[in-house]
Amino acid sequence: MISAADLGALYTQIESVFRAIGSALMAIVHAIGAIIMAIVNGVIAVFDTIIGCLTCHRMGGRRRTTGRHHRHTTSTI
Question: Which keywords label this protein (predicted)?
Fold first, then answer.
């Protein structure tokens, strides 16, 4: 006959097995998500490069600063 202590130990072991399986499945899901994000970021970078080449990098590039203007003078010596 199985005692209550043995059933408790068996329950604990089964619970830890299911936790390990759940952790492994979550790790797989996170890895798949990271791979998909890397692919999407790569595609976005390629399109960004193509659009940049077609527009000569004029769209969304450097912001013009207002306020301070620097004057460059040359020496006549």
Answer: Membrane, Transmembrane, Transmembrane helix
